[in-house]
Amino acid sequence: MKAGDTESSVAFERYHVNVGEAPWKTRLPKKFRVRIYNNCVNIQECVQACVYNVHRVSEEGKLSEPVEELCRGCHRCTLSCPKGAICVELNPEFQRLGDSYFTPERIENIFFEAETGRIPVSGAGYGGVFAGRGFDGFWFDFSEIVRPTRDGIHGREHISTMVDLGSKPCMLVFRDSRLVSEPPRLVEIPVPMVLDAPLSSSSDRNLSLALAKAVSMLGTFSIIKAEDYFDDLSPYGFNLMPRVNPDRVIEFPWLIESSRIVELDYKEEMPAEEEIKANLRHVRKLNPSAIVCARFSNLNGAVENAEIAVKAGVEVIHIHVDDSIVKHNPDAIVSTIRKVHSHLVEKHMRNEVSIISSGGVAEAAHVPKSIILGADAVAVGLAYQIALGCKVCYSDKHQEDCPMRIEDTDVSLASQRIVNLISSWRDQLLEVLGGMGLREVRRLRGELGRAIFYRELEEKVFGDSE
Ligand SMILES: [Zn+2]
Question: pTM for this one?
Fold first, then answer.
């Protein structure tokens, strides 16, 4: 502490993450192919026309080979060439990246964000769709400004992206000025994002290590399957959230004792309230202060599952919709978060739990969109694995031919890429909050009025006639 600093000025520190250039060992295919035909007469109009420096002149004064990596596909060069000697086209190899959900453009953005920690700029306006399913079926509404917009990233004003995981009591009971009710079980994370456990792969240990290092820099959590835990992770225990099969809690006493949050994995079947209570007792016996998160992926019973879990005394619920389901039915994740949140609000139970949602999180905008639907935080899964070279794998493990490999020497680079990705997504969240004039992300939760739903708008304008 410097002389003159008061305690409060030291206690308040603005959240800051060190991003740094982190190019991955493999590159994505170039988006565009730029070809110069034989009828080029070296007029070099294209050199003047291109603002991205794709076309250059060699030392001999001749036109060099175009630098395709820099091309943004604006076609100024093709228009400027009086001979029509330039052809710019999409690279078919680029178009084969990913699939219909994790599109080539989304993969390109994830790679850019992980490499630089910056926000990708499309250059020529919004390039995405204006209507669609799932997260594409609604947009942010910046029109309802009750306060001036705020300068998010560059920050003359502070916007908080901190959220709580845990249960907030309806009231605190004091007797003789002393708190007699149980203190709230809450953990604060500075970004509304945690990292979901990766799919299984041959580079598990190095990947887990990279994740652990990344979350300790970010101050958030990485979910790790209890059976995958190994001793090298112990320095990062503060930021790990072990996922345990509820029947196997007693097999991992050391892990439960040292964790702030424990995730019980109920998969499809949510048991009866009494059984969940028994599972909770097992956890609490090992670690009385642990926050318990119940994860489930049963879509049809999501609302009932959530209610049972809250009644049983769970403090966090993790609604997971498998990426492969979201790929075929993008509405699945959107409707599930919305239904669970509004049901818990109706039942006056919403503040007794925090909601983490995961599945289909493929771009930065999906974080504030999940929060608008009612989640407190989002678990990022496949996206960070794509940032490390995964070719977009589904199910529970990476495919045989998936190029994601994290060697011993790659661990620091991999963790920097994850830090960059989350930091870039946080900056984009700040842009959204700033645009809406919101001072903290907690205020965005469940604020459906901050979004415009394509389907509702269509019905309003055209009626419900088919
Ligand atoms: Zn993969």
Answer: 0.91
